[in-house]
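Researcher: Next sequence.
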Amino acid sequence: MDGPSALINRQALHEAVASRLRDMIVEGGLEPGARLNERELCERLGISRTPLREAFRVLATEGLIALPPNRGAQVVKLSPQDVRDTFDVMGALEGLSGELACRHVTDADIAALRVMHEEMVACHARRDLPNYYRINRVIHERINAIAGNPTLTRTYRALNDRLHALRFRSNYIQEKWDRAVADHGEMLDALAGRDGERMRRVLVGHLAHKRDAVLEEMKTGQ
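Model: Next structure:
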């Protein structure tokens, strides 16, 4: 097939492959530092190398994989210092998002967030981490969108793409996961009260807890 339809189909395929690989990286199916064997991935996903390589380029721009010359693709592995630095900046961005969101949030926004929060809590109760994290991610992105600052959103997304796998891993320790759920309850209370200072404080602390959980997990090698 040639022409525009063929181009659309090819783009849809490599985007679908990028989405699948992204989930595998975030959920630990592809470990940090792992080399990506093209032949094995093509067989596993039922695709040719062209859409796979196009997907690699997409994920490289997101900071999830590296493409060193003549060495093949590999999953990015951050050092402990990289983790500290990146989570600290992300915490500041999350805090600003939350503070601005308190100025613009509507009752309808809060109602929608409460529904998502309840779904997320249900996933936590049944220890369904993949679906918990998907809802968690939507909640954070929704708060950022409510903030209404496009420049903040672009910066937030660019940095957060690099952290999804680590944010997922921060819940591997049950105590840390429980704390994260409690943090989300505080976020909703702060939003409902339009308390920007409290919201900023809760979100900065939330990211600090995640940073510490990841560093602990890295140190113990779990």
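Model: The radius of gyration is 19 Å. The beta strands are 65-66, 74-75.
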